[in-house]
Amino acid sequence: MNRNEAREAVVRTGRLLEERGLTVGTGGNLSVRVEGEELVAIKPSAVPYGLMTPEDVPLLDLEGRVVEGRCAPSSEWRMHLGVYRARPDAGGVVHTHSRFATTLACLKWEIPAVHYLVAASGDELVPVAPYRTFGSPELAEVAVQALGRRGKAVLLANHGLLALGADLGEAFGVAEQLEFVAELAWRARCVGEPALLSREETWEALEAFRGYGPGRSS
């Protein structure tokens, strides 16, 4: 997508984050790569999702310089750019403060394989990155390290969830699916010890996810 399309996608998906209950107020943030340019469109700082317009959305280069936009970028711009620099496969990034994922992050519990949709994370569980101050270079560093080379999601201790995808739509889908799995994990633990999928079962689900989508034979 071009610059205008990227900014519109940030506005549209940001509103969806709020509508689906994946964040509260101005919390959380999201970004998307601009095709053919070393640029990223990112949520503006402290602007409510419902009031955000495409003109508000800043465009940054991968060094963090604002190229376009009338608002300051999200305080988490370092974390977003760190992901894009480390992961060429990332076309969109979503950071949420969703209730159940954040609850597990506050307990420093991984999101385990209580349901096959954990495969949306690209791994057999969602790891927890250690706590670092929001917006800091240190948080960006530990988040990128925890994602590794194939992970699509990581919990940020005492903070929230970070998800990536080939595009912004996929990143949003990863965040939404993992919030569902986090809720299941929490509810199951309120009753007893959840029965987890085995490593083999989880990897079978991961392989099935790679062949899942429109136009694919079932």
From TrEMBL:
GO terms for cellular component: cytosol. The keyword Lyase applies. InterPro entries: Aldolase_class_II_sugar_metab, Aldolase_II/adducin_N, Aldolase_II/adducin_N_sf. It comes from Aminomonas paucivorans DSM 12260. One of its GO terms (molecular function) is L-fuculose-phosphate aldolase activity. It holds the Pfam family Aldolase_II. The lineage of its organism: Bacteria, Thermotogati, Synergistota, Synergistia, Synergistales. Its EC number is 4.1.2.17. Residues 8-186 form the Class II aldolase/adducin N-terminal domain. Keywords: Lyase, Metal-binding. Gene3D superfamilies: Class II aldolase/adducin N-terminal domain (3.40.225.10). The keyword Cytoplasm does not apply. This is L-fuculose 1-phosphate aldolase. GO terms for biological process: pentose catabolic process.
